[in-house]
Design goal:
The structure is a homodimer. The first copy, chain A, is an all-alpha fold and about 230 residues long. Helices cover about 80% and strands about 0% of the residues of chain A. The structure holds a DNA duplex (30 and 30 nucleotides).
DNA sequence: AAATAAACCGGCTCAACTGCCGGTTTTTAT
DNA sequence: ATAAAAACCGGCAGTTGAGCCGGTTTATTT
């Protein structure tokens, strides 16, 4: 399967409505609709800025309006309540996280075919974890632990993200085809490991982080060579 | 070295003032001083409850007073500003996290000498990550990412916690004595891995978490057998 | 071109939070 | 016993956030 087709399939399975009305695909019907969509996007982007800059408690209506350079009235017109905005932010963050990771990974694969694919995947994942989108994801994930209303929005989206990986990643990593369980384990391992590393980054210095990263990648390399040990 | 002495040394190095005035050690001078200390402890405990229950943004003066069943005036008498309380919470969380982990680990070691020590340590660490104190630690760590004032309090404490481990853990794991670098790597690995697993716990089901936990423990077991490979 | 609808704007109310204060009660010192 | 100090209490002002509203401007329909 072509990489582009796979990306498209995964993204549209993840967020059908969001994926459908993308600038490249969505037909630009009337101007008011385009204008409205642009403004919503602008507000969501401003909201993600607030999230990354000031955390979930800093995602206030006033701050978002200011960051987006939009009046509070306009903002209220597009998102009646703060939670509506948060919901749009969750969708955007989840969607964009997968989109950028896939693009980055397939780009790396297409350019460097000498390195083992597992190494490329680990590197790409570690890069993806250091993006603005993942910072926003982390804020949402932690806030959702103690905010039931947010959890009701975030967790289904996060589970969908996870489910898409579980069902589709065999396409992206064909060499693991005989080792289905280990591939899933590797994915879970890398997700957890890199998330934990990001959390410890302000405490650990770069040398330690780098050593950990290499150790994690090496561990995954070994796992891929192992003959499907039932664990 | 005896386990009790090691624990005492690590805890007093971590938080000298807090460790000194513990109920078992601190001389109960005058009643007002004891009363004051008890009230402070009660308020800090209530604050940690708020933190675990409602996250860092839920750690408000009103909520803490209510959770501690104390009037707001009394609270203000002991902690003039919210940040003073937060500072006490950070100290308590950092101190208590190490205290409970050490107690749990040495208790496990003293009772079951048949299992490999590395297994016991991994299990104890995974348990420690699921405590109320670690939940509070996680909230603080994430909030500190976007709150400079909190970071100025939390990060030095977290670094001190980390430094104590780096300098003292060889006493707790004598069998790694020849493998200093790998022991440090193992500690960093387990910290990051379990933190990431906790973050993913609301998304991953118990089976996956358990598989990851076993894989991580097995990886550490192998690392301890490996002849100090420079990484 | 008139009417309808949708995008935009800033001011308003209500609630919550922080920090402060005057005053009361309990403990300690002399 | 009496004065000083420390623990306790609830109410106040100032600030900030969420949500709502009337009104203006811009696009669309007929």
């Amino acid at each position: 399967m072509k990489a582009e087709a796979l990306q498209d399939r995964m993204l549209s399975a993840l967020m059908p409505e969001l994926h459908a009305r993308l600038p490249e695909n969505g037909v630009p019907e009337k101007w008011q609709q385009r204008k409205s969509a642009m403004m919503r996007e602008r507000l969501v982007s401003g909201a993600i800025d607030c999230l990354v800059e000031s955390g979930y408690p800093g995602l206030t209506t006033a701050a978002v309006a200011s960051a987006s350079e939009v009046s509070r009235g306009t903002m209220h017109h597009h998102f009646q309540t703060r939670m509506e905005l948060v919901s749009a932010v969750v969708d955007q963050v989840v969607y964009h996280r997968m989109r950028t990771f896939l693009a980055d990974y397939f780009d790396a694969v297409s350019r460097r075919t000498d390195e083992p694919m597992i190494e490329l995947a680990c590197d790409a994942h570690w890069r993806s974890v250091q993006t603005r989108d993942y910072a926003a994801w982390l804020e949402l994930a932690v806030a959702a632990r103690t905010d039931a209303e947010l959890a009701a929005i975030f967790e289904p989206a996060a589970r969908r993200y996870d489910a898409i990986w579980a069902s589709e990643m065999i396409e992206a990593f064909p060499q693991w085809r005989e080792d289905w369980d280990n591939l899933k384990l590797a994915h879970d391992f890398t997700s957890a490991m890199h998330a934990g590393m990001l959390l410890h980054k302000p405490i650990f210095d770069d040398t330690r982080i780098d050593r950990l990263r290499r150790f994690a990648a090496r561990t995954m390399q070994k796992l891929s060579e192992e003959p499907s040990s039932r664990t």
